[in-house]
Give the backbone structure.
Amino acid sequence: MPSSAQDLALAELIRQALLDDGVLAAEDFAVVISNRRKNIVITTDVSGRHTVRVRPPIAPQRVVDFVRNKAAELERNAIKVAKMAPRHPVKQLVGGEEFTWLGQTMRLHLTEQEGPARRVRHESGWQLVVSAADVRDRGAGVLTDWYCREGLAWVERNAPSWWRRMAPGSRAQPGLDVRDLGKVRAGVFNGRGDQVAFHWPLFQLPAALCEYVLVHELAHATRPPGKPHGPEFWACVKRVMPDGRRRQRLMRQAWLDLWIGATR
């Protein structure tokens, strides 16, 4: 809903009070009036800019005191969020450009021969051999299709053994797919379609981290609808993968540096 004139006036009073106090610089924060929040909530985005959300009625000085008391924490949060900001690289589709498959480096090799992209072992290391004509016509789509195809083959080889350990005899394994899921999710379980889908960039990570995402999504398939996480969910993961939480942390950090399709 549009902000009322009263809300806008209160936001300006709070903003000015914070500026007068000097605890935050003008370019480092914004004030938002919200009836759906606690009295005062501060969030920090990847640029380090803070959003001060307050629920009226509230005295500007109370907000100033709150922010001043949180100043050190806000600085730490800004540093932490900046470290977690995505650093997805931009690739050039030229010979020699580096890509990864299950944690192993491979170099792009463009060939005038037609045919599907393929990973081959060369005396100098692994190569991803791709038709130059396909790259000219389809750009990065040639590579993402390769990741989808090879990723699905990897999942189909590995999922059955994990599923038998997670849901022995209880139900059939859900369907599997690899496709583009956007910029954030590594995998998703669709209960209605009884299918687990994985985001193609996942398969740049080492196999151990891919296995974590596979187990995570299969664990969703063992749970009742509407109960995505909770103690029973994590117990299911831990039963078959005791170091699952550690792998989760490593996967989340590594995800920030994955190539997600951008080229120049």
The chain has a mean pLDDT of 90. The two ends are 40 Å apart (CA to CA).
